[in-house]
Amino acid sequence: MGDTATARAASGGLTATEHRLANGLRVVLSEDHLTPVAAVCLWYDVGSRHEVKGRTGLAHLFEHLMFQGSAQVKGNGHFELVQGAGGSLNGTTSFERTNYFETMPAHQLELALWLEADRMGTLLTALDDESMENQRDVVKNERRQRYDNVPYGTAFEKLTALAYPEGHPYHHTPIGSMADLDAATLEDAREFFRTYYAPNNAVLSVVGDIDPGQTLAWIEKYFGSIPGHEGKRPPRDGSLPDTIGSELREVVREEVPARALMAAYRLPEDGTRAADAADVALTVLGGGESSRLYNRLVRRDRSAVAAGFGLLRLAGAPSLGWLDVKASGDVEIPAIETAVDEELARFAAEGPTAEEMERAQAQLEREWLDRLGTVAGRADELCRYAVLFGDPQLALTAVGRVLDVTADEVRQAAAERLRPDNRAVLVYEPLTAEEAGPADQTDTATGEEAAASE
Amino acid sequence: MSDVITPAMDLHPQPAGGAPRPWAFPAPERTTLDNGLTVLTCHRPGQQVVAVEVLLDSPLDTEPEGLDGLATIMARAFSEGTDRDSAEEFAAELERCGATLDAFADHPGVRLSLEVPVSRLEKALGLLADALRAPAFAEAEIERLVRNRLDEIPHEQANPARRAAKELSRQLFPAGSRVSRPRQGTEETVERIDAAAVRAFYERHVRPATATAVVVGDLEGTDLGALLAGSLGAWQGDAGQPNPVPPVTADDTGRVVIVDRPGAVQTQLLIGRVGPDRHDRVWPAQVLGTYSLGGTLTSRLDRVLREEKGYTYGVRSFAQVLRSTPEGTGAAMLAISGSVDTESTGPALDDLWKVLRTLAAEGLTDAELDTAVQNLVGVAPLKYETAAAVASTLADQVEQHLPDDFQARLYRMMTETGATEATAAVVSAFPADRLVTVLVGDASRIAEPVRALGIGEVSVVTG
Q: Where's the Peptidase M16 C-terminal domain (chain A) (predicted)?
């Protein structure tokens, strides 16, 4: 084990130490003894951006296969053992990474480490056709449930395909296409594991009521003998010009309950000050019920039932600002679009008021407190900054960076990026009664609390 | 490459866990303010985001005839202006605190949920108190909320899971009962709502004497008594009487209703009936049995439907309390939900019924029950890590007329429950011949295979 451990003071009284095993596995530990729980989070530096043409969805399908057993864990044993120990777990796949996490009662931490090590080292001894065929069907049903069988369900996929050009690593979303899910073979899955699942392509974080010395000893014991390798292929280059250059547009005529105006704006890469400024800009314009677009479209014009902006932060390609407006009654899209353009232009010219800055930053600060308020959230953020930016400590100071952004930087972000010539527009027009006829991230287990909500 | 792969790593035996560190569901302090408001407080070290829940005794069955959705509009109108702030100003002030305020009307009453960093608790409590004490209910804002609500309804109709929930309530409960109808009203009832109706409903049902506030978070160094006295303590109202709770009855004659969705690629399933609420002695056993049936992807339903057959991304069984009374005469909806691809609808339902019948015939194993106890009890410290989670459960207990230590006792009772009791509870909760099945899907493709299963008469509705 290397001697790279350093403890640094960080914001909010939270600290993290960093370590590296001889096989290249990076480890981040953070103690917090308030509750007897411990979160284990493992990020592999592989996501849908690493997929090749004809094999979209493979990273996510593979994530499912990671729960189908390994050398010492039979079948669904990973789920059974964690849940039987009073823990909760899941895995998720996004454009840029795949993460696996177990939140355990503190006295069961060692079990979670053993389980993660077993599949990191030995997955291929258990992976077979039966689990491949079964999980292929499960994932196809996940795709139907979350995207294909709900109104506007494929909007994000369509926007992504517009905003990132054909051939770009972010052109397709992690769920992949049905055709590619059908085409994936067991050998593709094996090859994927051999290429990307290695200790030197991962970061492990453990956060909570832990003894750091004991935890490191367990990590060394269980992960230390897994050989590292350099088989990984880097993702295709995701860089693009700062702006799209001219507006892209797609009109979808589908059986949806109302007209909708959506758009994707190309924004600065995550990890930059400009991305934080864009985050504040989107919050002022479209975050919450005191935002400019909500006030204009929902309160004053009454042209929309909902209106807001979301930010998808990306490190390996331009981030994406997602506008989502659902029309009210019979209001037509041009009326909404004109109002949106007016608000964006006015904001780009005048910038936010001091009070708007205060509100947006207070909202973003609370979101960060929420993220860092649970051991699982903290473990995930430490991995994120370690994998994407090489420094987990940045997670603990991220909120400070958002609060440091100035009104002029926010105005500048809007002026440079929130322009009609830097967006892909997606318009939904519902089919009329006569026409109607037969017609960002994705995870392993359904996460919602079961309930019958109307 | 060879199919026999030898791991390159050193294998170690599965570790045994250490000794559990003690944890108990937190006990709140209960006080009453001078205005009659009941307050539950719970200090949770380290939880910088404080959660405040306020329960109002304004159940949906007290909405006037033909005005379903009135409680929902009132709940939403609380954050649309007060005697101090316009609607826009109120939203702005709240967000300036970094706070969120949600309000929702359900069968037992209206619930407001505030979350705010503890550093700005005072300001946010002041806004919450303004909303309850002196809501503006301006005509223009109410009219906008009504329009907005009307716009939402088609979106809910289009969503298969929500459409299924609405149909199941309509099927299960007598037509005249409030529980049979959508919580947030229909187009016909919502469009009749105006500011005068909202004001009258507020005056009739909203008062501190019949309300409860729950405050949870890191309250070290916060003089909560003084903050409450200066905010929610200033809310005035008369004594008021608690609203009576009508009994819940249901028709669970086994039958199938298909809500037709031509061309749907999946069928949404919602299979349910009504059972006891948390006051019933069977509750701990029913929680364990229901988890073993469909609580997770290693439970009986998903072991077959997902992990063996691949018909679904996941099917869950659960109980959702509808109404409770101090006397213990309340009811919960018991249900199984999920979605399966259209082609597999018949085979999936066939397997689902086989799972139920096998469970009734053979019962749960001791190992299954042990897993359920270990998970449900063991997971508590994680489940209740945040202030919001603790506040929500404490508020549920108040709303359901349960003692403040109910959750803590429930965990103890679960550890004392055996497989025989859990089997009896889940089998009586989900009897194979007394379940109402709602399917939202393509009737032309699923009706025949479903009829062939013999799980009840099949009818088709549209819309």
A: 184-364
